[in-house]
Amino acid sequence: MADSSDTPPPYGSMADWLADRALRGMIGALRRLPYEKRVPMMGSALRGAIGPLVGYRQRAERNLKLIYPEKSHKERLEIARGCCDNFGRTLIENYSWQEFGQRLVNTQPTGAGLDPLADAAAAKRPVIFVTAHFGNHEAPRQVLSAMGHEIGGLYRPMQNAYFNDHYAKTMTSWGGPVFEQGRRGTMGFARHLKSGGMGTLLFDVAAKGITLPFLGRPAHTATSAADIALKLDALVIPYFGIRQEDGVSFAVEVEAPITPDTPKAMMTEMTRRLEAQVSRHPEQWFWIHRRWKKRKGG
Question: Is 111 left (phi over 0), alpha (psi -120 to 50) or beta?
Answer without folding.
Answer: left
